[in-house]
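> call design_seq(struct)
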């Protein structure tokens, strides 16, 4: 209790010369330093919340704690030197250095709480209490470092008020910075400055309220030996030097974090550029693969409009081989498929395309076109209707292949088959030996009608001896393996005796 009595008193009246001994210019400087340091610290806390990496977050958090803690310490000592009586005294260097630790620790803990994604009311009050305790501890520990500390006492009510004021103003500052923007998003731009001013007021308010709580065991008039104490050059110079060091430190903190953010943003830009270049390279390769794919697709790939001319939006270069006109002529509208269609095939094409378009299903159609050289070409077109989501229009996508050679071969084969049917007797059997067709000559030779012969087995036309002979089974094995069988064979017709049949038996799969 005796030790507490050397610190807290009640009923002592303030010295009338207390405020007269304060240099107004240094008081103003101390307030500006506290506001600046608090603004930097809150800005760093916001950067720590938005940090992308853990290293960046820790650096911003540490920088903010250093700015706020050193700002509290600097404001206190400038305020001490602004008081002429303290300015004439000396300070214990070890206790002076030790006094900065509470402000640094409290600042770090408070700002760490504020880096949470969502800041609840309890967190704001906890951080404010921590800041207030740090300011108060630093202040009274710093006052104890003065050589005049044995003469100092503190009035209980003002002492408690100084701590309470620091906590309340710190809470208000944190709410302005991290809570008010929930209700007024427009304060985002200037919220840090406003919160910095309030936090600076908390730091300075605590100090000067604590000075108001100061009581001396001896009158100040007896302590102030120099009447010109208000203009002492040493305290003023020292205060300015301390302020310059603190401001420089704050600016250095901002510069370091700004450089870090710049490097991160530059890295992101460079990474984005590399990604863009990679995407462009991938797109180029995809385009090359697409062009190669389209080029190697048999026939001409296309997309056309559903108009009377079948106007082409896109058609591959292979169309020139099919029609004689280059793809650029079709896409420029200088020539259209609707102009080169054979007039006799238009109705048949429409009969196939119209229901396919209505039902949005694939289609296949074969038709003739007039080639640029004047000859008629056969083409096969396979495609399907496509709805383009960009313009909500229906288009046809497909491939057109020249089948002229195939058509000629088919016609030649059909002509040859017709000629054979006119001069030879021909029948067709399935793999099990049953008749599935026979031409007129064969029907006349064997004495059957078409209805009678269909479905009969080949053995029906053989004598029992021929059917039982090993060569019969051997010949069928040759046929099933794809080998022709030629020779002279006896065949039994309808109501006739066995006759000699000279023939070529050729498998056709």
């Amino acid at each position: 209790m005796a030790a507490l009595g050397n610190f807290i008193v009640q009923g002592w009246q303030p010295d009338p010369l207390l405020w007269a001994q304060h240099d107004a210019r240094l008081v103003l400087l101390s307030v500006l330093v506290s506001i600046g340091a608090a603004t930097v610290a809150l800005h760093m806390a916001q950067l720590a919340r938005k940090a992308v990496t853990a290293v960046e977050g820790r650096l911003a958090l540490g920088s903010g704690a250093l700015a706020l803690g050193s700002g509290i310490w600097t404001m206190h000592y400038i305020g001490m030197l602004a008081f002429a009586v303290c300015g004439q005294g000396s300070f214990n260097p070890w206790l002076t250095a030790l006094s900065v630790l509470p402000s640094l620790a409290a600042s770090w803990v408070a700002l760490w709480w504020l880096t949470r994604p969502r800041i609840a009311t309890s967190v704001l009050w906890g951080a404010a209490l921590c800041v207030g305790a740090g300011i108060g501890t630093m202040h009274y520990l710093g006052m104890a470092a003065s050589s005049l500390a044995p003469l100092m006492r503190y009035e209980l009510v003002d002492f408690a008020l100084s701590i309470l004021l620091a906590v309340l103003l710190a809470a208000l500052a944190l709410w302005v910075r991290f809570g008010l923007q929930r209700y007024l998003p427009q304060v985002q731009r200037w919220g840090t400055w406003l919160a910095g001013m309030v936090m600076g007021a908390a730091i300075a308010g605590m100090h000067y309220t604590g000075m108001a709580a100061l009581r001396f065991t001896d009158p100040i008039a007896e302590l102030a030996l120099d009447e010109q104490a208000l203009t002492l050059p040493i305290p003023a110079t020292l205060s300015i030097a301390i302020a310059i060091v603190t401001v420089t430190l704050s600016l250095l903190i901002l510069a370091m974090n700004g450089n870090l953010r710049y490097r991160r943003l530059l890295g992101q830009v460079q990474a984005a550029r590399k990604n863009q270049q990679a995407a462009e390279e991938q797109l180029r390769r995809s385009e090359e693969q697409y062009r190669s794919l389209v080029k190697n697709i048999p026939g001409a790939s296309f997309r056309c409009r559903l108009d009377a001319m079948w106007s082409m939006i896109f058609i591959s270069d292979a169309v020139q081989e099919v029609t004689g006109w280059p793809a650029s002529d079709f896409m420029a509208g200088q020539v259209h498929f609707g102009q080169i269609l054979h007039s006799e095939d238009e109705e048949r094409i429409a009969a196939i395309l119209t229901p396919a378009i209505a039902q949005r299903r694939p289609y296949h159609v074969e038709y003739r076109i007039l080639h640029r050289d004047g000859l008629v070409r056969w083409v096969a077109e396979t495609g399907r209707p496509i709805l383009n989501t960009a313009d909500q229009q229906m288009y046809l996508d497909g491939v057109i292949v020249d089948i002229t050679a195939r058509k000629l071969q088919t016609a030649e084969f059909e002509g040859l088959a017709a000629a054979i049917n006119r001069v030879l007797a021909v029948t067709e059997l399935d793999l099990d030996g049953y008749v599935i067709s026979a031409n007129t000559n064969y029907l006349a030779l064997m004495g059957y009608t078409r209805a009678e012969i269909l479905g009969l087995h080949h053995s029906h036309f053989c004598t029992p001896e021929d059917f039982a002979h090993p060569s019969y089974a051997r010949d069928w094995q040759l046929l099933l393996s794809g080998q022709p069988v030629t020779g002279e064979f006896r065949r039994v017709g309808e109501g006739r005796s066995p006759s000699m049949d000279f023939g070529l038996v050729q498998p056709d799969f």
